[in-house]
Amino acid sequence: MKRLLLAGAISIAVAACATTTSPTGRTQTVGAVPQQQLNQLGAEAFEQYKAQQPLSTNAQQNAYVRCVVGAVVRELPASAQGGWDVALFNNDSPNAFALPGGKVGLYTGIFKVARNQDQLAAVVAHEVGHVVARHHDERITRQQGAQAGLGVLGALVGSQYGSNAAQATQQLGGAAVQTAFLLPNNRVQETEADVVGQQLMAAAGFDPREAVALWQNMISAGGSQGPEWLSTHPNPQARISELNARAADLVPIYEQARASGKRPNCG
């Protein structure tokens, strides 16, 4: 029944697709799923994931990530600041995600590469950037022409979850919603999230230059080839060069934010 309902909802919504402009000026096609429903699906995926994955009980680390997320989302428009939910999962992978509806998940393994609050802010702001730029909406809209319902969501499953993930998605029904939202994004979206995220972190009073150090740490953590999940991301060295170039322009924004009293002290 869930499959039929979701398939019908996406099929009906196809006619409502619209062209819009992303935060970086790129043309996007969005709207296969209404924003309210997208937020609901994001919340459902988040609750499913929290029910299935072990949550960290480390109070200090939980407070740390909530502090960083709070500082970043306060730079969003007032209408988008409320209701953000944060979860820290006990998982050794250096990973994080954000979902429509204001949901942020981080794995404890992220602390291996995000070694201070500014580097963690680079991670968080990048993931929030995916939400701000409507990348989940864009991805689902792009796929709806080929498949419908859970077939769409199954098609969105990325290599991060293994070669059998798409098949498992079809079999697990409602879990497909969760998995679809957590797949790696394409290179264009990753670059755009870098741009948006670096701007957000600087405006929040986090040093945008630390985004460069973060990615250097990520590459080091994965050896000469980098982590496997980087295969869907832009070339790491090119990415670092772009982050470094943008950081130079964002330092004045960071310094202005600090001068105005935005001095996050998350730990």
TrEMBL record:
Family: Belongs to the peptidase M48 family.
PANTHER family: M48 FAMILY METALLOPEPTIDASE, METALLOENDOPEPTIDASE OMA1
Alphabetic keyword roster: Hydrolase, Metal-binding, Metalloprotease, Protease, Signal, Zinc
Signal peptide: 1-18
Pfam families given in the database record: Peptidase_M48 (PF01435)
GO aspect biological process, one term: proteolysis involved in protein catabolic process
Family annotation (InterPro entries): Mito/Outer_Membr_Metalloprot, Peptidase_M48
GO cellular component: membrane
GO molecular function, one term: metalloendopeptidase activity
Record's cofactor remark: Binds 1 zinc ion per subunit.
Domain named Peptidase M48: residues: 60-246
Cofactor: Zn(2+)
Name assigned to this protein: Peptidase
